[in-house]
Design brief:
Blueprint (H helix, E strand, L loop, with lengths): L12 H17 L2 H19 L3 H4 L2 H32 L2 H7 L5 H30 L6 H14 L1 H13 L2 H18 L11 H7 L3 H14 L7 H27 L2
Length: 260
């Protein structure tokens, strides 16, 4: 007597994305300090630099702008570390090489990683928004808050691509250093720590050519109505195209070098 076994049905694309997302989230929370650090730094910056300043904390527009600046920094930081150092660390693991040989392809794995990055980026916003609401005069309507979150995630997309470019191009140790070298100068010169109005003329001119300043001004416009400089959107799009091209080239180079 012989028996037959029904063929196992392959999981669909959404199921694969969910599995990769769950795997990435579990891998991240296994190191709690990585999650805590992502939550703490923008909130501490709010407590130490914004709340004690009555000129900022007591002014609704200035306080809302400060919360928006730090929110953009939190999302950029989450994207660069998740996709920069995170991808570089994964590439060093034998399991990553095995996963990349599976027939599911790159899209579910990449979609799962993007979903994980967005999840932790949004998580970092929660304590920051609560502190801004409780300890300063920052105020927005629910509609403006929702619009601000959408604009925030959109303006940070170039940094997601930059993170992927670093992660697929650099080794693990090099990626950590490069992310730190890139993150803090871009944040400072882009006006995420100090208002750009306080910059000297040369730094103000340089700042307007940076994606962090363009994203900051577009976000502030969405939250407060204060208009961004005219070239903010073209500058952000140009950097986004450049970083996307670098990410694609880095991925194809890594794919060709490791799986030729």
């Amino acid at each position: 007597m012989t028996s037959t076994t029904a063929p196992t049905r392959a999981p669909g694309p959404l199921r694969l994305v969910w599995l990769h997302t769950r795997f990435n989230v579990l891998e991240t929370v296994r190191i709690p300090i990585a999650v805590i650090g992502n939550l703490l730094f923008p909130s501490l910056a709010m407590v130490f630099f914004v709340v004690p300043s009555p000129q900022v904390a007591a002014d609704p527009t200035a306080a809302t702008t400060a919360v928006g600046q730090l929110a953009l920094f939190a999302v950029i930081s989450a994207y660069l570390f998740t996709f920069g150092t995170g991808v570089a660390e994964d590439r060093a693991l034998p399991f990553d090489g095995y996963v990349r040989t599976l027939p599911a392809g790159v899209l579910p794995r990449l979609a799962g990683r993007v979903a994980t990055g967005v999840l932790f980026a949004l998580t970092a916003l929660v304590p920051l928004i609560l502190l801004g609401w409780l300890l300063t005069e920052a105020r927005v309507t629910a509609t403006t808050l929702l619009l601000g979150v959408v604009v925030l995630l959109a303006t940070a997309l170039p940094f997601l691509m930059l993170g992927l470019a670093i992660g697929y191009r650099m080794s693990n140790k090099a990626a950590i250093a490069v992310v730190q070298v890139v993150l803090f100068p871009l944040a400072f010169a882009g006006g995420l720590f100090l208002p750009p109005q306080t910059f000297p003329d040369w730094l103000e001119t340089l700042s307007r050519a940076l994606p962090s300043r363009a994203g900051r001004d577009l976000l502030v416009e969405a939250l407060t109505g204060v208009g961004a400089y005219p070239l903010a959107l073209p500058v952000l799009v140009a950097w986004g195209v450049l970083f996307t091209a670098l990410a694609v080239l880095a991925y194809r180079r890594d794919e060709g070098r490791r799986f030729r």
